[in-house]
TrEMBL record:
It holds the Pfam family FAR1. The gene is FRS5_79. Residues 57-133 form the FAR1 domain. PANTHER family: FAR-RED IMPAIRED RESPONSIVE (FAR1) FAMILY PROTEIN, FAR-RED IMPAIRED RESPONSIVE (FAR1) FAMILY PROTEIN-RELATED. This is Protein FAR1-related sequence 5.
Length: 134
């Protein structure tokens, strides 16, 4: 069961599996719901354990909202070459480069239309990946 509370959506799990009502169990003890934060939209400062976890979260969000993502930019460390930043964008972000070939080819449908849906994640010193820009 999900309950909207202010700007944050909460997932409520009840301690009794028989019914999902606030009442008393067989011993007369009141059943209190366990509330866990449920985040369904990315926000600046959101942390992930890995780059793959950030990618999976944004992909699930994009699918739910109605677009497809792709990796746009990758920043690497100068020291060891490991990935330290990643930009995940809508697959319709930007515009197609003009065709520089002299040969005339069949016009194709326009797929890049300048969509601005984007998330930028950076690896911090703790090893976690943090959303730095939306």
């Amino acid at each position: 069961m999900r309950v909207k509370w202010g700007e944050i959506q909460l997932k409520v799990a009840f301690q009794s599996s028989e019914d999902n009502k606030l009442n008393q169990d067989s011993s007369g003890t009141e059943i209190i719901p366990v509330v866990e934060p449920y985040v369904d939209e990315p926000y600046v400062g959101q942390e992930f354990e890995s780059e793959a976890a950030a990618h999976a979260f944004y992909n699930a969000y994009a699918t739910r909202v109605g677009f497809i993502i792709r990796v746009s930019k990758l920043s690497r460390s100068r020291r060891d070459g490991s990935a330290i930043g990643r930009a995940l964008v809508c697959n319709k972000e930007g515009y197609r480069m003009p065709d520089k070939r002299e040969k005339i080819v069949r016009q194709r449908a326009e797929t890049r239309v300048g969509c601005r849906a984007m998330i930028l994640v950076r690896k911090v010193s703790s090893g976690k990946w943090v959303v730095t820009n939306l």
